[in-house]
Write a structure and sequence with these properties.
Elements (H helix, E strand, L loop, with lengths): L10 E5 L2 E5 L37
Antiparallel strand pairs: 1-2
Length: 59
């Protein structure tokens, strides 16, 4: 699998009062091949995260 550029720009996002460290892992351009109304199903990605290398900050 091509992960693209390994220099992800991390950021922080608060969801329901909890702070999360976030990064954009993939961006994809969709180009229609025909005219008219098209339905695009949601995209899903599965990633395996190594907890040993993911620093978790706790207050």
């Amino acid at each position: 699998m091509d992960l693209g550029d390994a220099n992800w720009e991390p950021g922080q996002r608060t969801i329901n009062g909890l702070a999360y460290r976030v990064a954009t892992l993939k961006k994809q351009v969709l180009i229609p091949l025909r005219s008219g109304r098209l339905r695009i199903d949601p995209m899903t990605l599965n990633y395996r995260v190594n907890p040993a290398s993911s620093a978790v900050e706790r207050p």
